[in-house]
Amino acid sequence: MILTVDNVNKSFGKEKILKEVTFKIERPSIIALVGPNGSGKSTLLSIITNLQRADSGEISILDKENTDVSLFREVSFMQDNTVLYDYLTGYDHMQFIADVQSLSKSQIVETAERIGITRYLNKRIGKYSLGMKQHLLLAMAILNKPKLLILDEPLNGLDPTSAIKVRNLLLELHKEGTSVLLSSHNLSEIDRITSEILFLKKGAIIKEDISQYERICYHLTVNDVSDAHKQLTKELYEVEIISNQKISLFLKDTPLHIPLSLLMQSGTKIVEMEKIIFGSEDRYQNIFGEKDADHEDIPI
Ligand SMILES: Nc1ncnc2c1ncn2[C@@H]1O[C@H](COP(=O)(O)OP(=O)(O)OP(=O)(O)O)[C@@H](O)[C@H]1O
């Protein structure tokens, strides 16, 4: 068993943040923790990594209690960049971890290369951009090749190219046997990494394999919208007219060529086609919707 979270409760004052949170990671996987701002994701991750105490409940990692100090060699937690010291260099931060865990200098060099931070490793953190800090934090977290890698918003502040690099790195680490538990607001990136999602709603976990909700939608620009709509609905396809030239066609298991040939045989001209995948974003809207005002951002 990689991680067991059993009946975890946590309140701050009168506010109950986590209510009987229970879930397991049984095999090496990538799991995303998703919820609105202030829903308790960071609190849960720091409780799992024993940086905060739960009011009640039990947590074990790799079949040891999460308070077991020997776990620091097998588990890493990437927190936000407030853990970095402005007057130290990136190398100093990596060196500190290497010293504590008896890792070699060559591991620092290799990891820095892998993440692509070598060129600024000797600069002070005060001169790092947000994205550079995120890369360094990630390098620090994977330096010890952990069995369980826990990441709080690893995609925060990354440009699209860097986000793709980080996504590919997480997929590679997973192939190498690392389990990844990450919180993120970037649902389209999450869809590309995993379909296993823990939604945190009003303090409780809703665990879902969202691949069951994944649907592909094609926006088709056609010469005759109402005729195309008629032909497809007659064959029980899910279709919506979105403008006087465009329809949306939702497919789950049917190959695209079947409805397309149906349209062409009935004389419809398809001028343009765009593919859209619906996954966790759809599900997020269903679970949290706009009416869930419990965790609305409060203007300061
Ligand atoms: N040390 C603390 N003392 C009091 N309240 C706290 C403390 N830490 C967090 N909270 C409150 O607990 C709630 C959950 O915070 P948390 O940071 O875990 O949420 P989050 O889901 O990670 O949010 P975000 O997505 O905005 O990062 C918030 O209402 C926050 O104000």
UniProtKB/TrEMBL annotation:
It comes from the Bacteria. It holds the Pfam family ABC_tran. SMART domains: AAA (SM00382). The keyword Transport applies. Signal peptide: none annotated. InterPro entries: AAA+_ATPase (IPR003593), ABC_transporter-like_ATP-bd (IPR003439), ABC_Transporter_VariousFunc (IPR051782), P-loop_NTPase (IPR027417). Keywords: ATP-binding, Nucleotide-binding, Transport. GO terms for molecular function: ATP binding. Residues 3-227 form the ABC transporter domain. Gene3D superfamilies: P-loop containing nucleotide triphosphate hydrolases. This is ABC transporter ATP-binding protein. It comes from Sutcliffiella horikoshii.
